[in-house]
């Protein structure tokens, strides 16, 4: 496989830090540029992250002395050095949209962890096992941007990575209505218990914007390309509630679902355990061998035990049973900063490289 030079824009935040760990020994991607806000320009990465390193393992030596760029002011220089960037900046949405388009127009593809472009009709929001074909909208986006190589692709919200894969495996049974409640770890807010002590022994029943994303984003993932845009699906209808809970990592979902063609429990479990997608077909470096795993035990999946399944890139499902209002209910779990954030973006980038979208 070709080697690619990559940049991490937004490298000092929690997701940016996770990117550095995932890419430290990546077989295809070599990090040659780290960027953040202007106040970090000229500092080494170790200096920029001093007192702010949130990972449970130390900063890799290979990054410590790398000198930081200004993500905005140095965009041209960064774009000239890399084949594409990962973007995980903490800015206002309109500023993120402008920054990502700036890189794309500099002919530098953007694999974004941000939500700013998820609603843009010609920006694919890709979960490689589910809707890899949405990459085919990229030529239409390039036409709009006036670019030959540059484009933006985004990964979806971290909360939907727990229940959307489980539902995607059941699509031919035609789910019509879904009620879901997510129990989301504090790392989803970029926090640790040290920096957010009020979360200890606590649950907060509100996460700004999350319920809207949890109801809308799956529809784009399940949608189809129509001309120059992605047309969102109209079913199933999703009702979501999102709670912040006292866990460090791992988002859990409790979902109830109604089907047009109600399957048997055995059929559902068989679909889950054998579900594969384009990421597995291409044998991408970050792809889990088993994307979905069903646990027969009544008390699984558990956040602490199961969030790191398949190096944090697998989804755990359990407690499938009949429901009194819907047809079935189940719980599912994914690692929010691995599958849900940086890992999902790395896997998406691997897909785009393997399919030729990053070629010069």
UniProtKB/TrEMBL annotation:
Q: Which UniProt keywords apply?
A: NADP, Oxidoreductase
* Keyword Nucleus attached: no
**Biological process per Gene Ontology, one example term:** methionine biosynthetic process
Which residues of this protein are catalytic? 158 (acyl-thioester intermediate), 251 (proton acceptor)
Q: What is its EC number?
A: 1.2.1.11
| CDD domains from the UniProt entry | ASADH_C_arch_fung_like, ScASADH_like_N
Under SUPFAM superfamilies, the record lists: Glyceraldehyde-3-phosphate dehydrogenase-like, C-terminal domain, NAD(P)-binding Rossmann-fold domains
Keyword NAD attached: no
* Residues covered by the Semialdehyde dehydrogenase NAD-binding domain: 5-138
Question: What Pfam families does UniProt report for this protein, alphabetically?
Answer: Semialdhyde_dh, Semialdhyde_dhC
A GO molecular-function annotation: NAD binding
Which family would the database say this protein is a member of? Belongs to the aspartate-semialdehyde dehydrogenase family.
Q: What is this protein called?
A: Aspartate-semialdehyde dehydrogenase
Q: Which species?
A: Agathobaculum butyriciproducens
The gene is asd
